[in-house]
């Protein structure tokens, strides 16, 4: 039984649509950053972390942009070296143990008029309630905002992986279909 050449094209279109849907879902998770738990420095905040795994604590700061077409101006309300000026601890309320924080200053994000830089990573074994305690001596109070994001780097990586896999599988299916089509035409010509 011969498989028609256009089956590969149909499969490629289905794979492409599924890849786009998965990529959109991954990207939409990243754009929900404003719904992640936040902490105002200094203070104690109880947050519900719903999934076990890796979390990143980000320092958020506002940016103001003026764009007049030919001229763009940007001002940032940011404190430098915040990781040295803010003390942060995370306490598991069930076990009363302090969660180990790892300094991490490699990630940033920008969304609307807010930018953020990562300060710490931590890992939890199970979901639950946690208390985040923050203090500072050298910075004005109630202007520093920290955000806790689940698996930030993994989410970004999954976007790129889903795009790559979608592109690769779609390309392979189209190439196979073209090969089958050319082979069937060659067979018709030689008859």
Describe the protein in words.
This protein has helices spanning 6-30, 82-85, 152-190, and strands at residues 38-41, 43-49, 53-67, 72-77, 86-92, 98-99, 102-103, 108-111, 114-124, 128-136, 144-150. With 191 residues, it is an alpha+beta fold. The chain has one domain (6-185). The longest helix is centred in the last third of the chain and has 39 residues, at 152-190. The protein is elongated and about 85 Å long.
> How many β-strand runs?
11
Broad shape: elongated
- Tell me the quaternary state: single chain
Q: Percent range for helical residues?
A: 25-40%
Number of helices: 3
In this structure, how is the largest beta sheet organized? 7 strands, antiparallel
Mean pLDDT: 79
Strand fraction band?
35-45%
**Low-pLDDT stretches:** none
Structural class: alpha+beta
Summarize the structure.
With 191 residues, this protein is an alpha+beta fold. The protein is built from three helices and eleven strands; from the N terminus they run αββββαβββββββα. It has one domain (6-185).
Task: Describe how the helices and strands are arranged.
Blueprint lengths: L5 H25 L7 E4 L1 E7 L3 E15 L4 E6 L4 H4 E7 L5 E2 L2 E2 L4 E4 L2 E11 L3 E9 L7 E7 L1 H39 L1
Antiparallel strand pairs: 1-11, 2-10, 3-4, 3-9, 3-11, 5-6, 5-10, 7-9, 8-9
Helix pairs in contact: 1-3
